[in-house]
């Protein structure tokens, strides 16, 4: 399968290989490319198989880009992104976001990806916060506080009726 994958995409186009979940098990990896191609999502029978295939793919990509003996800048070397590497990448993304080098949307996409969320697995689909409250105006006024939802409350407690249902449900569940 890996040979088929490599013939489908050249190793040089790979920009990231992430270890991720499928059906809540860490048995999958997602391969991201430099161009606008959709990522490839692969599920394996075990975590060991996933790690071995991901490590092999990363090695092949890095060796194709930087053959032994080449001393040029190696900033484009990638590693198999596991939870430890993802934490470092998230910290880097947070700093880039704080310096306004990336947009809110780009930051949320990065966090979703690093958290193992993927458009290729409906059980781990990316999430984005619900921040708008005004869905009726022709034009949104971003200077009015009523345009945005109250982020101090969970979505289930935004209005009195929703809050009562939430309270009732919470009381019933924890009797």
Structural summary, described in words:
This protein is an alpha+beta fold and 175 residues long. The chain has two domains: 2-124, PH-domain like; 130-175, no CATH class. It has five helices and four strands, in the order αβββαβααα. A four-stranded mixed beta sheet has the order 3-2-1-4. A hairpin with a 6-residue loop joins β2 (25-33) and β3. α3 (83-98) packs antiparallel against α4. The mean pLDDT is 83.
Which helices and strands occur, and which strands form pairs?
Blueprint: H1 2-8, E1 14-22, E2 25-33, E3 40-43, H2 47-65, E4 80-81, H3 83-98, H4 104-114, H5 160-173
Report the biggest beta sheet as strand number plus sense, adding barrel if it closes. Answer: 4 strands, mixed
Average of per-residue pLDDT values: 83
SS strand fraction: 5-15%
The CATH class designation of the largest domain is: Mainly Beta
How many domains comprise the coordinates? 2
> Based on the structure given, which CATH architecture of the largest domain is correct?
Roll
Detail the poorly predicted runs: none
What is the spatial order of strands in the main beta sheet? 3-2-1-4
């Amino acid at each position: 399968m890996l040979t088929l994958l490599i013939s489908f995409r050249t190793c040089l186009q790979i920009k990231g290989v992430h270890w991720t979940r499928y059906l809540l098990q860490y048995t999958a990896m997602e391969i991201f490319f430099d161009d606008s191609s959709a990522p490839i999502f692969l599920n394996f029978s075990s975590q060991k198989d996933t790690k071995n295939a991901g490590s092999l793919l990363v090695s092949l990509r890095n060796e194709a880009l930087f053959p032994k003996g080449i001393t040029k800048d190696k900033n484009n070397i990638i590693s198999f992104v596991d939870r430890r590497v993802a934490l470092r990448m998230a910290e880097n993304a947070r700093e880039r976001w704080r310096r306004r080098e990336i947009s809110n949307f780009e930051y949320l996409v990065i966090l979703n990806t690093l958290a193992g969320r993927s458009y290729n697995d409906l059980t781990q689909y990316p999430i984005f916060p619900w921040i708008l409250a005004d869905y009726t105006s022709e034009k949104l006024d971003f200077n009015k506080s009523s345009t945005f939802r109250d982020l101090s409350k969970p979505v289930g407690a935004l209005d009195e009726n929703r809050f009562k249902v939430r309270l009732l449900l919470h009381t019933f569940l924890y009797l």
